[in-house]
Write a structure and sequence with these properties.
Strand order of the largest sheet: 1-2-4-5-6-3
Structural class: alpha+beta
Order of helices and strands: HHEEHEEEE
Distance between the termini: 12 Å
Largest sheet: 6 strands, antiparallel
C-alpha cells in the first residue's frame, strides 16, 4: 500500500487528499455519492435520491446503508493504526423518514476510535434537513500482512 496521510499526522488538507487519492469505490460512484467534507473529526457526503429509489419512488433503505457504510468505513480507515485496515463487523440502520427527491446528506461522527475497533454514527437527512435514517457501523482494525487479504 502506498503511504497515505493518516489521522495521527493530518491537517484538513491531508484528510481531503486522502479521499482524492483513495477514492470512494465503484458502488459509491455508481450511486452518485460525493464527499463534501472530510476531516479528522467528521465526514459529510451527499447522494441523489433519483436513481436510488425503490419502486414506490422512495429512497431505497439499502441506499441509506451504502451511504452510511461509505462514510463510516472511509473515516475508520483514515484513523486506522499503521499497518491496519478497517473492515466492517456490524452495521445497522433505523429509517425514520423517506426522501423522495433532491439529495440526502450523511453526517458521520465517530463514537469510539479505539486501537482495535472504530464505531461511527451516520445521520442522513433530506434536503429539508429532516432526519431520514440513523446508521451505526462498527469496523475492526485488521493487521495487514503479506499473506492476509483485507
Amino acid at each position: 500500500m502506498s503511504a497515505l496521510p493518516s489521522a495521527a499526522t493530518s491537517s484538513p488538507e491531508d484528510a481531503i487528499e486522502y479521499i482524492r487519492h483513495r477514492g470512494l469505490g465503484a458502488l459509491a460512484d455508481r450511486m452518485g455519492i460525493e464527499m463534501i467534507e472530510f476531516t479528522p473529526e467528521r465526514a459529510v457526503a451527499t447522494m441523489p435520491v433519483e436513481g436510488n429509489t425503490q419502486p414506490v419512488m422512495l429512497l431505497h433503505g439499502g441506499a441509506y446503508v451504502v451511504l452510511g457504510e461509505t462514510l463510516g468505513s472511509m473515516h475508520a480507515n483514515f484513523h486506522a493504526p499503521d499497518g491496519c485496515v478497517a473492515v466492517g463487523l456490524d452495521i445497522n440502520a433505523t429509517h425514520t423518514g423517506s426522501a423522495t427527491e433532491g439529495v440526502v446528506t450523511g453526517v458521520c461522527s465517530p463514537i469510539k476510535l479505539g486501537r482495535s475497533v472504530a464505531v461511527h454514527e451516520i445521520v442522513v437527512s433530506d434536503a429539508r434537513g429532516i432526519r431520514c435514517s440513523t446508521i451505526r457501523i462498527t469496523n475492526f482494525y485488521k493487521r495487514i500482512t503479506q499473506d492476509s487479504e483485507a
